[in-house]
Amino acid sequence: MMNEQTNWQTDEAKEYTHDTDKGSIVDLPTRGYITLSGVGNADPNNRDFIDRADALCKVADFLANAPENDLEVEGYTPFKRYPLQAMWQRVTPGRDAQWRYQLMIRQPEFITKEILQSAEFSILNVDQSYLWDIRLLHFSEGLEAQIGNVGTIDRRGRVNSKLQQFIRDSGYRSLAAEGWHMELYLDDVARTPGDQWHTILRNGIEPMDITKVMKRGVPIVEGK
């Protein structure tokens, strides 16, 4: 009998909450992600971003459905494909700045580099110019504050302002200005209009005012 499917939407609902009114804090351990990089904006009109996102999602779907795709994976248990994420870093200054991004989709521990390499020889619906650049990397996101949003994320807009205010009120400071910030896309960005994307914005944080941290007592969701 096949094991019950692992589903991030129900099993890890607090980590992937889409609350657009209140921020929350997560602490995420080292995990495996398949990744694909690019330069540009998270815009439904940016075909390169959309095509790269679509390619990575198709590879992730193939891995999540390994038995149906005749891919042997030791220790495989059924799981719902994790959502697309992107780590962003500014490349050029100003309002029209260019951004470097790394698209990511989380993988269970039983998906290894060898499994990914084996799968790449069987995947036929992904442009090879993208396929051979996809890698499996392991790293920790660490301590982050997050908030939900509907539509694309404007880094000068309301969603970012709300997140920064939540971070300050909770006694932390944002590390976004010193490195990457994270965006999650809970919909299929290649097939959903941009103004309907359900997104999550995350910023790395560290304590700034320990007294305020203790007084506010914002719970920290520990990732699995």
Explain the overall architecture.
There is one protein chain. This protein has one domain: Regulatory factor, effector binding domain (Multidrug-efflux Transporter 1 Regulator Bmrr, Chain A). The chain has helices spanning 8-11, 47-64, 113-120, 128-131, 158-169, 210-216; strands at residues 24-40, 84-90, 99-107, 135-150, 172-174, 181-185, 198-207, 220-222. It has a six-stranded antiparallel barrel with strand order 1-3-2-6-7-4. The two termini are 25 Å apart. With 224 residues, the protein is α+β, with helices and mostly antiparallel strands. A hairpin with an 8-residue loop joins strand 2 and strand 3. The mean pLDDT is 92. It contains six helices and eight strands, in the order αβαββααβαβββαβ.
What are the main properties of this structure?
224 residues, alpha+beta, Multidrug-efflux Transporter 1 Regulator Bmrr, Chain A, 6-stranded antiparallel beta barrel, 6 helices, 8 strands, 24% helix, globular, Reg_factor_effector_dom_sf
